[in-house]
């Protein structure tokens, strides 16, 4: 499975429209990959909370449409990072806004969405601005010349909640994708938690972070690909970078058979 993680960097001086065009061009440049991943909230700004409401859009809005076209042009499955999704509130008192990941097929069709379950902010920040998701998201990603790979979706702060990833494994996930807007101040947690999730769930973990500085927050970069044994196969620095790597997905099943930790689970 050939994967590209686009560690996009941006600041406050770039418009959403310009950044969208630039991200779409970067996606088009990844033709030949099976899966391409962008970071969390790269269009509205991961920490630009005050502008989320005005930059919110439905799942078929302008950002989504531009990335769907880029996926089709490149012929890749594209995890387009996440947007602030606008829609009808589900319950009285809800905001009708979610941090929603979008996945497009090589034909440019929207094949999966994931509304971020864990909102960062300790009762402030995201919990005051957006609604929480409630549903797991798992999909099969086609691989050139091989069998499809089952991929589980999560976003940024989710990485701190191992029970979510156990549920994704129970749903069949072999690869875990984590787009993020993780700040430099806690970048050691980002790297360590990614390895921990890979080791305990015996999955490949794809972590795609943001670079640059926006809304007075320096982003951490350091995207990484971790195999099912916890070994870091590829890692980015702090600046904009594309990580491209061929992953031996057959090795996941081999490792699970050789070291069958998951079979020894006993708690309900």
TrEMBL record:
Taxonomy, superkingdom: Bacteria
Organism, as annotated: Humibacillus xanthopallidus
Family the UniProt entry places it in: Belongs to the carbon-nitrogen hydrolase superfamily. NIT1/NIT2 family.
Keywords from the named record: Hydrolase
Domain CN hydrolase, first and last residues per copy: 1-249
Lineage of the organism: Bacteria, Bacillati, Actinomycetota, Actinomycetes, Micrococcales
Keyword Hydrolase included in the entry's annotation: yes
Family matches, as Gene3D superfamilies: Carbon-nitrogen hydrolase (3.60.110.10)
Stated name of the protein: Putative amidohydrolase
């Amino acid at each position: 499975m050939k994967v590209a993680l686009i560690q996009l960097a941006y600041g406050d001086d770039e418009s959403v429209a310009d950044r969208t065009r630039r991200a779409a061009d970067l996606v088009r440049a990844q033709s030949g990959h099976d899966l391409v991943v962008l970071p969390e909230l790269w269009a509205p700004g991961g920490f630009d909370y005050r502008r989320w409401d005005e930059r919110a859009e439905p799942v078929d809005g302008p950002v989504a449409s531009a990335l769907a076209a880029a996926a089709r042009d490149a012929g890749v499955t594209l995890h387009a990072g996440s947007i602030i999704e606008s829609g009808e509130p589900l319950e009285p008192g809800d905001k009708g806004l979610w941090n929603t990941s979008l996945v497009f097929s090589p034909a440019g069709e929207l094949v999966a969405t994931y509304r971020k379950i864990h909102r960062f902010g300790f009762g402030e920040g995201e919990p005051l601005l957006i609604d929480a998701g409630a549903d797991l998201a798992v999909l099969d990603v086609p691989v050139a010349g091989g069998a499809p790979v089952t991929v589980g979706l999560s976003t940024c702060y989710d990485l701190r909640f191992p029970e979510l990833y156990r549920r994704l494994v129970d749903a069949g996930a072999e690869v875990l994708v984590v787009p993020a807007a993780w700040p430099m101040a806690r970048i050691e947690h980002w790297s360590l938690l990614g390895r921990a999730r890979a080791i305990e769930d015996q999955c490949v973990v794809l972590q795609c972070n943001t670079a640059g500085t926006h809304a007075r927050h320096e982003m951490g970069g350091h995207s990484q690909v971790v195999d099912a044994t916890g070994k870091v196969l590829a890692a980015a620095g702090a600046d904009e970078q594309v990580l491209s790597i061929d992953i031996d997905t057959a090795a996941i099943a081999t490792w699970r058979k050789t070291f069958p930790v998951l079979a020894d689970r006993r708690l309900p």
